[in-house]
Known about the structure:
Elements (H helix, E strand, L loop, with lengths): L11 H18 L2 E7 L4 H17 L4 E7 L4 H7 L6 E6 L4 E4 L5 H8 L4
Parallel strand pairs: 1-2
Antiparallel strand pairs: 1-3, 3-4
Amino acid sequence: xxxxxxxxxxxxxxxxxxxxxxxxxxxxxxxxxxxxxxxxxxxxxxxxxxxxxxxxxxxxxxxxxxxxxxxxxxxxxxxxxxxxxxxxxxxxxxxxxxxxxxxxxxxxxxxxxxxxxx
Length: 118
């Protein structure tokens, strides 16, 4: 006897469950490409690097690349990427591109906005 909810076509519940579980597997295997634009070694930039590294190591271990770009060393990158404030974090992949500004100390906000929750 089929265990589908009343009124559902036979086998639909199993297909929905399979699709949901596949989505969870895909989500847990996504690779994140992140760029953090900083302005030298000022306290805000240092906090952003430390906060982001902590979040990534805890929630994305082995599934992320992080490029830290010092805009004092590479000012042309600010122009190329339309960066007007530092620190700025850009999630390049997975799309869509997402940007966060600041020292990334609001951990729940960073996790939510980058969609990296466990």
